[in-house]
Amino acid sequence: MAVAVLVFSAVLKANAQYDTERFYLMGRQALIDGRYSAAIENFNILARLDSDSYETYFFRGIAKYNLGDFRGALEDFDTAVRINPVFTDAYHYRGITLSRIGKYDEALKDMDEAISLRPGFMPLYFSRGVTYFLSRQFEKAVNDFNRFIRSSPKEATAYLNRGASYLFLGDTLSALADYDKAIKLDRFDPEGYIRRGRLYAMDGELDKALEDMDKAISLDTANTFAYFNRAILRYDVGDLAGAMRDFNEVLKDEPDNALTLYNRALLRAQVQDFDGALEDFDKVININPRNVLAYFNRASVFIEQGRYWDAVRDYDKAIELYPDFAKAYMNRSYLKNLMGYTSESKKDYETAQRKIKEYRQKTSTEEGASAFADTARQYSSLLALDAEFAQKNFDDELLQYRDIDIRLRPMYRVATGRRALWNMLDKIYENGLMDSLLASLPVPCVVSNADDSASGDNPSQYDDFIAAIAKDLSENPERKSVSLFVKGILESDEKQFSTAMDDYGKAISAAEDAGDAENPLLALMYMNRGVLQADMIDFISSMQHNVQVLTLDNRGSTTTARVQEQSTSSYDYSEAIGDMIKASMIYPDYPYIYFNLGNLFTLSSEHTEAIDNYTRAIELYPYFGDAFFNRGLVLIYLKDKEKGCIDLSKAGELGIDDAYSVINKYCKEDED
């Protein structure tokens, strides 16, 4: 007997070893192929097979990093380091991730630790050089790039980065030499020509600069940065039509590029296209309501159109945002005088003169002064990116104009279909009582939130099922509630809302009349009827596309979010909520009911209740990815982005691929 046990144990170990290797290879291959969500799925399984495998967390962290989930990546790199404190790669990539989110001091500590563990690994010096550059320690960056170049003298990217570091140190000759070297090593990389072209432009060699931008675009016709820079150069040489074409080319691929929108607005105003200019300024302000110059220049367009009060309001806003903006006071003074408000005009003029005096006093001291106070500066000229583009300005200026709809993960209901054959390692929700009730129904049913819930069943069979159920109702009245419930399920799948609603109501009444008020199946009936009521609202309002949608708008450094007004003011979800609450009272341990309540409360703008219900669903089912996703969206709406993005990261880890697109749009900017 003892021998048999040992043999069986050996077989288990062999199978476990095989599974581990298989999932590891599948995960690595998915990483190589760029299928990062698939990689995470495999590494999730590995983590459950062996929670002490530091490489599993490391590779999963890389997958999350590539999906833009930096928080999730850091958690996995932290775990890898905790399990193996001498794992160089984990320190290296954690440092890269920390650098990516602007935590440069922490990043440098990790880079230093990695170098101390493996001082001969030259890519570490490259990564640390980038981090030194981003943290404005340019001399140290040059030193690290020097060390890397000595070991890899044919790596063009290292020369580009060292050239940028020299540029910040004011050594334009060394910068130019490095850009020349990078181009010589890789003449098919547009980045070298863009960098060198910008340097030529700084030195006033516009013809050479244009040649380099033309070359960059010929190598990469989709390079919007090259088009942007060429647009500025064309404007500087008086080719306004060419500049406009290049701005349009950028916006064709990047309609959310705020800096380009701003510059095109200025250019449109110069060519008397005032309506177009206002359209672009409106978008810029929608992106960043604190963009002072957008208000200032939009006011000028309003004046051209004779819309004086609109112009005054824009000057008011510019001054509110920057109280020392002397030129805004001057312009408002001129406008108020034109409108006959002489006393207010005089007050603005005196304020402007006082601001100018204060500015001149500051510029003669070490304090310096803000350029906005300098009335000699022209604010109607195009904004080009200066040498600091490589540090942060370009990212800051591309304020990502987005106004997109991000749908909540939909509600769960009993629908026709069969349960998928899941891998035994997947942590799916199981409830013995509910599963047995579903299995007892006369047609195969599952609890699902999939759009095509039939899961391969032939919808043409529904008519036969419904006819059979109608016959059963007349012959077996004791099964009335179950038969009516199933009939309602089939009708719901067929989008026969009215008849389904009627049958759900009859099923509930029949069950209660029969004394089944505490039967968990009654909870499913209430759950389905509540979801159907919400579905009917969704169907009725589908032309407006405004139900079950959180609209998240990026607005500068602070993302705001709102549920569309129509979905809360025009539609009443109280009956659906009532049914779902009844379901929870009958069977209080079913996570799908609380998830549905979370959605209904979200649609009713009762966000605290929504979060409470999503949380309850997660407590009952800790691997409920949809609940993490929806709770994350609501938390972002409530401006608790830290917690919201953590929830989205967890949702992505649990297989909700949509989470990563949301993370990329709304979680990155607060990670510094």
Helices and strands in order:
Layout: H1 2-33, H2 36-49, H3 54-66, H4 70-83, H5 88-100, H6 104-117, H7 123-134, H8 138-151, H9 156-168, H10 172-185, H11 190-202, H12 206-219, H13 224-236, H14 240-253, H15 258-270, H16 274-287, H17 292-304, H18 308-321, H19 326-338, H20 342-363, H21 393-397, E1 403-407, E2 413-416, H22 432-439, E3 445-448, H23 462-475, H24 480-493, H25 497-513, H26 520-540, E4 549-553, E5 560-563, H27 565-569, H28 574-586, H29 591-603, H30 607-620, H31 625-637, H32 641-653, H33 658-666
Antiparallel strand pairs: 1-4, 2-3, 4-5
Short descriptors:
672 residues; mainly alpha; 5 strands
Write up what this structure looks like.
The chain has about 675 residues and is mainly α. Helix content is about 70%, strand content about 5%. It is built from 33 helices and five strands. It has helices at about 1-35, 35-50, 55-65, 70-85, 90-100, 105-115, 125-135, 140-150, 155-170, 170-185, 190-200, 205-220, 225-235, 240-255, 260-270, 275-285, 290-305, 310-320, 325-340, 340-365, 395, 430-440, 460-475, 480-495, 495-515, 520-540, 565-570, 575-585, 590-605, 605-620, 625-635, 640-655, 660-665, and strands at about 405, 415, 445-450, 550-555, 560-565. Helix 6 (about 105-115) runs antiparallel to helix 7 (about 125-135), helix 16 packs antiparallel against helix 17 (about 290-305) and helix 29 runs parallel beside helix 31 (about 625-635). It is globular, with a radius of gyration of 31 Å.
